[in-house]
Amino acid sequence: MKKTFIFFTLIFLSFANIATAQNYYSGFYKNISIENINIESVDFHYTIKPFDYNIEFKYDSSNVKSKFLIDNLFQRNSDNLSLSVNPQFRSIFSNSFNDNSLNYFLSFGTNFNANYKSKLFINAYLVLSEIDVSNENSFYISETKFIPNFGKYFWSQNNKFAFIDFEGKINYIASKYINFEIGKGRNFFGAGYNSLFLSENSNSYPYFKSDISVGKIKYIWLIASIKDYQLLGNQTQDFAGDKMAFIHYLSVNIFKRLNFNFFEAIVSSPYDKNFDRKGYDLSYFNPVIFYRPTEFANGTNDNALLGTSLNIRIFKKTLIYSQFILDDLIISELKAGNGWWGNKFGYQFGFKSFNLFSIKNLFFLAEYNKVTPYTYSHYTQNINYGNFSVPLAHFAGSNFREYLSFIQYKKNRFLFEFKFSRLEKGIDNSDLISFGGDIYKSYELRPSDYGVTFLQGERFLKTEFNPEFNFIINEKSDLHFILSYKFSIEKIGIDESRYSTFYIGFSTNFWKNNINIVK
Prior knowledge:
The protein has helices at about 1-10, 30-40, 135-145, 290-300, 330-335; strands spanning about 50, 75, 80-95, 100-115, 120-130, 145, 150, 155, 160-175, 180-185, 190, 205-215, 215-230, 240-255, 260-270, 305-315, 320-330, 345-355, 360-370, 385, 390, 400-410, 415-425, 460-475, 480-490, 495-510. By secondary structure, the protein is mostly beta strands.
């Protein structure tokens, strides 16, 4: 296995004497570019990602003479059919200044795209990867049996893990208004850097999605097959606990500057509390019902979530955005101020501008997220709002608040980014008690029904600075040269740790590969 990776790495590095690097939000610079171009259109729904195939993205071919820098590796076009194939690879090396350790992320594979009569679209990638991680992450991966964001591994040795990742989708445009999609991948709902509804944090999952677009209105119906590995009855730890997420999402562009969204989701398990298989409630497969009243009427104990968001474009290309997620809430208990555990909700406020100070391609974002204890959790992890041991919404789960700012400047093929974040979270100091920060712990482990306070438990604080330089070699295949530095300070109680890491190299940025583990 190692010889194979070395062989392919040497091939890809034969045109440069430098290796690779870093944690990167897959396609984030493309999302920014697409939003910048389309933000003023009343038909553009910027809170639904990935974006549709017909949404414009401008490739930069200025002053480029080599086709390698602007074309697909393989491309064939005819009147009805177009095909393209690109390599997918990564040779990431990082050096930690704390212990002078060298870690890596090595991948190679391929990406395939097909378009038939602009009605049928196929996109797929398959990659084989090996990673070398820190001792802390290695312990977590060994305990849970899978890698956050990527799923199960098939080989491990010391701190090294190998896995195969596949994502793909078939998209059929049935008419001007209706679109159907089936695949294995991720979805994102929101205008911000993070989402409290649905994000790209977890491993990819099989899903069916359809959307109806009528002018200023876009409606999404999404069914996702998710799972977690857990101990069920007398089963082994490797038992796959299946569950499904049924999601509705409505986006309405009101006038030219106002966007309103409604979100609802329910997570259901085919098992009852005794782990006997009962199947799924067929009413959840209805594309137009309201899940919360249906769950209540049927007397089930599934996990229902409701959310709304309001986004206002205050200037030409400047946006104020927000989200509110509701798990459970009793107004009388909230007014009483007695810290009832069942008031579970979260909210987000943010600001972003695409041409800050009228400087072309200068993007700035500032965001605040807060989620109260026990939100997204349930009596068992098989009904929580998570997939493969990772939250489906914000990576920090619940019982946290986060401040972050992000700035990006793009000039031709040069891309500079800087991210600052500060995360405060209440974590557990015992396996037998849940203070509401770990959505994978049963809320029945709470110490009491009342007296719950925000950030209860042991206080965790992480401050992170991350400047990064990119040179975009080929935008169609997302081939980048990356140079990055990350500095973070972590505090648990009175203990403080500082981490300093340098990254360098080449990569096709086809996924989000932050391994965020905050319990």
